[in-house]
Amino acid sequence: MPNVSHDRSTVLATLLPASEVVGRLGRGFANAGHELYLVGGSVRDALLGRLGNDLDFTTSARPDETERLLRRLTDNVWDVGKDFGTISAKADDASGRSWLIEITTFRADSYRSDSRKPDVAFGDTVTDDLIRRDFTVNAMALDVSGGDPGTWRFVDPHGGLDDLDARLLRTPSSPEVSFGDDPLRMMRAARFASQLGFELAPQTAAALPAMAQRIQIISAERVRDELSKLLLTDSPRAGLNILVDSTLADFVLPELPAMRLERDEHMRHKDVYEHSLTVLEQAIELEKRRDLVDGKPNPHHRSDLVVRLAALLHDIGKPATRALENGKVTFHHHDVVGARLARKRLTALRYPKDVISAVTQLIALHLRFHGYAEGSSGGLSSGWTDSAVRRYVKDAGDQLEHLHILTRSDCTTRNIRKAERLRRAYDELEFRIDELAKQEELDAIRPDLDGNEIMRILGIGPGRDVGRAYQFLLDRRMDAGPLGPDRARDELLSWWASEHRTE
Predict the structure, then answer these.
(1) How far apart are CA 374 and CA 357, in angstroms?
(2) What are the φ and ψ backbone dihedral angles of 77, each rounded to 5 degrees?
(3) For residue 271, what pLDDT is reported?
(4) 122-149 per-position pLDDT tens digit
(5) H or E stretch at 59
(6) pTM of the prediction?
(7) What topology does CATH give the domain 263-444?
(8) Which of these CATH numbers, 3.40.190.10, 1.20.1250.20, 3.40.50.720, 3.30.460.10, describes 5-166?
(9) Number of C-alpha atoms within 13 angstroms, CB side, residue 450?
(10) Angle of the 386-396 helix axis to the 464-480 helix axis, nearest 10
(11) CA nearest 67: which of 82, 53, 84, 57?
(12) Are the CB atoms for 14 and 46 separated by under 8 Å?
């Protein structure tokens, strides 16, 4: 096991802010007769000079002993991962900085061919543990058992340091064994390619298509989480291409490769799949730009999963709606069909209901703006009526900002004049929304009378008629703006009278 001095120095320099906590843990475990290693992504990120506040360790101690030691050495402990050998904790250093600690007993587990869950087995040495890691760049460790940083020992039995320098993703054991042990590692390969900007080693890439179908034994929740992590990277294109090229997407997100078979309606420079990746990239840039603070990147910015899912999936209805009309390819109603397909797929992947609702809403609405753009000639009096703008805002609801991002990102034309016209049209629409919002509180559009007032004015009790009256007043509010209580009362009574005349 090499102990490369300059690399050890790099790790030590990056870990300096954490050295107090790491040293405390190392001494505590060593005094109890146990080994403790900083491991995996923590070592990798330390070598890359970008360690965060999360510290991952592996130890010879069994989970009960790890929990006992952490309760003495840290501030808060939780054991939700205890069945898998993991105990977590929070530790504060003298400066008040908090560190999230995760310590896992040496592992030697694997999947059975017919199982969605691993057979949890504990190993006896760090060597047993490291060879079970997903990639060599995550199979390096730092022995911190001595406590004092001067005694820490760099452990790299699988050449992870060389692969880190070469920016390669290679498995410690053969890819077939590694992916067989945990098929989710195939998706992690795609995610790390995007997250780290690394390439797949030839053996790693070659194993993916041959083993892709084995991803089906992994639970939908774990697949979902890995897909989300990929989408939340700064540059997800590389990872998504790996999923599609390797046929992994055929099993986890088949709507994605299906788009590769379709040309967009312009039949020119992009297919629907490439168009969708471009929309995703543009959405990410807009998401970041719209979260600037004083014109600078927001250090607390969080990647937006709803925006990214909607951007990636907004055109998944096109393959099912493709038709030829007068020699031209059309995709009529692909927004409606796409929303339905997205709901089905995201439900199968066990996404939360609020995420599914938001994404499908955005997909269903992503074409609405084009009716405005087609009616706009560049002046603020063109395009939609105020009523149509109100309905756009009302239908978007709390997804309006996301809809702004998605709609602007959906312009990928190489026609500079057309792109500029669409940009100006959307600038105009946003200006009109802002102006109406100042006047009318568009974000909370409701009728001028509530249900209780409707029942009192009409002299009726709860029932279907109250809902019909409420919808009438909401439509009038959309068409005419705020009516005020007196005018709303008069129009309600007039409508009620006309309804009863027709009956």
Answers:
(1) 28
(2) -135, 140
(3) 85
(4) 888 999 899 989 999 999 999 999 778 8
(5) strand 54-59
(6) 0.81
(7) Hypothetical protein af1432 (1.10.3210)
(8) 3.30.460.10
(9) 1
(10) 130
(11) 82
(12) yes
